[in-house]
Amino acid sequence: AQPVEAGLRAHVRVVGKAAGTTEADKALALERAKIVANYLVSKGISQERLHSEGQEGGSQSVRFVVGQLPY
């Protein structure tokens, strides 16, 4: 089997979200994004193609933004 990286040419922004606006919520959102990014690295995605960030407010989730240029 080929590593996942073989088919990926784009850069990915991994955005963690947490409900609320406190510093703890911001830290939780960033931690969610980092956990997902680390999982992608473990599956063969180059760390250089990933950027993790946290956003406050909204749902408790992680989303991906895929682009051609580094973030």
Oligomer: single chain
> What is the molecular shape?
elongated
Helix content: 25-40%
Low-confidence stretches: none
Structural class assignment: alpha+beta
Q: Tally of extended strands?
A: 3
| Beta-strand residue percentage | 25-35%
Strand order of the largest sheet: 2-1-3
Kindly state the mean pLDDT as a whole number? 84
**What gap, in angstroms, lies between the N and C termini?**
29 Å
As a whole number of angstroms, the C-alpha radius of gyration is 13 Å
- Biggest pleated sheet: 3 strands, mixed
Sequence of secondary-structure elements: EHEE
Q: Quickly count the helices.
A: 1
Secondary structure: elements and pairs:
Layout: E1 11-18, H1 23-42, E2 50-56, E3 62-67
Parallel strand pairs: 1-2
Antiparallel strand pairs: 1-3
Verbal overview:
The protein is an alpha+beta fold and 71 residues long. Strand 1, helix 1 and strand 2 form a beta-alpha-beta unit. The mean pLDDT is 84.
Index terms:
alpha+beta; three-stranded mixed beta sheet
In short:
With 71 residues, the chain is α+β, with helices and mostly antiparallel strands. The chain contains one helix and three strands, in the order βαββ. It has a three-stranded mixed sheet with strand order 2-1-3.
